[in-house]
């Protein structure tokens, strides 16, 4: 019978059994060296934006954005519009459920390529959908079987916003890439693509020339205005011009 008892534990105790067993052999000694298993995930996001190009604007100025990606877009071009006030906290950070839900609600309609681009470019602060309109596509590289760009694929396009000082539309080229990996030549290809997009923007018939990009600055007390022209309630508390239609916001 003692032999049968021994057979039930053929290869020693498990850690759980050892922990729950009474300390029959005196105190357990701390080993001199802790044997650790290391875990690590390195995410690498990168991107570039160009100088701005001031555009002569009129009705339908935003309609020209896709044409600025002619010859460079490898997939369908999607337009991401500025986010309205109900999405003002939207961020692609899953550990913050309220912000993540807003982000998903705002962007689940977009393609995997655009969602990937927004995760990368918003994470590195290269686009800000509080005031940017973003024409987005795959520019280089491959997508996986689910349609998401590989880590070395380059996404991006044209971001446009309305200059707070003049009300002019400012366009800039934007590229980004990243994920679980990095390749040495991606930066160089990205820089080349950035130049290609900027060339296209400058070739647009409404382009007036290069300009410094100044992000819309705070205008005290002007937050929360609803555009009288298009009804857009901006998530950008500092908006002086409507981020969606570019018309001047009026207090009403
Ligand atoms: Zn408007």
What does this structure look like?
The protein is α+β, with helices and mostly antiparallel strands and 252 residues long. The protein is built from 5 helices and 6 strands. It has helices spanning 2-7, 15-20, 97-107, 112-123, 186-203; strands at 44-55, 78-80, 133-140, 154-162, 169-179, 207-211. Helix content is 21%, strand content 19%. β4 (154-162) and β5 (169-179) form a beta hairpin. Residues 227, 229-230, 232, 242, 244-245, 247 line the site of zinc ion (ZN).
Please report the distance between the alpha carbons of the first and last residues. Answer: 92 Å
Average predicted local confidence, pLDDT = 88
Contiguous runs where pLDDT drops below 50 for at least 5 residues: none
Strand content: 15-25%
Q: Decide which structural class fits the backbone.
A: alpha+beta
- Going across the biggest sheet, name each strand in turn: 2-3-4-5-1-6
Give the fraction of residues assigned to helices. Answer: 10-25%
Main beta sheet: 6 strands, antiparallel
Task: Please tell me what the overall shape is.
Answer: globular
Q: Summary?
A:
The protein is an alpha+beta fold. It has helices at 2-7, 15-20, 97-107, 112-123, 186-203; strands at 44-55, 78-80, 133-140, 154-162, 169-179, 207-211. Helix content is 21%, strand content 19%.
Topology:
Elements: H1 2-7, H2 15-20, E1 44-55, E2 78-80, H3 97-107, H4 112-123, E3 133-140, E4 154-162, E5 169-179, H5 186-203, E6 207-211
Antiparallel strand pairs: 1-5, 1-6, 2-3, 3-4, 4-5
The structure holds zinc ion.
């Amino acid at each position: 019978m003692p032999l049968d008892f021994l057979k039930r534990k053929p290869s020693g105790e498990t850690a759980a059994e050892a922990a729950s067993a009474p300390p029959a052999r005196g105190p357990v000694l701390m080993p001199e060296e802790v044997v650790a298993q290391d875990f690590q995930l390195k995410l690498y996001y990168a991107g570039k934006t160009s100088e701005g190009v001031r555009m002569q604007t009129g009705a339908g100025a935003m309609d020209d954005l896709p044409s600025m990606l002619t010859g460079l877009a490898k997939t369908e071009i999607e337009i991401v519009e500025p986010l309205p006030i109900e999405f003002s906290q939207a961020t692609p950070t899953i550990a913050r459920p309220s912000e993540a839900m807003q982000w998903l609600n705002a962007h689940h309609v977009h393609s995997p390529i655009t969602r990937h681009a927004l995760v990368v470019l918003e994470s590195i602060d290269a686009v800000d959908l509080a005031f940017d309109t973003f024409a987005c596509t795959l520019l280089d590289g491959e997508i996986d079987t689910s349609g998401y760009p590989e880590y070395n694929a380059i996404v991006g396009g044209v971001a446009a916003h309305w200059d707070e000082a003049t009300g002019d539309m400012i366009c800039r080229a934007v590229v980004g890439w990243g994920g679980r990996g990095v390749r040495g030549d991606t930066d160089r290809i990205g820089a080349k693509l950035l130049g290609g997009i900027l060339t296209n923007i400058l070739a647009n018939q409404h382009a007036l020339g290069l300009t410094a990009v100044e992000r819309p600055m705070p205008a005290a007390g002007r937050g929360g205005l609803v555009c009288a022209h298009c009804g857009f309630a901006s998530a950008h508390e500092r908006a002086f011009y409507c981020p969606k239609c570019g018309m001047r916001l009026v207090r009403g």
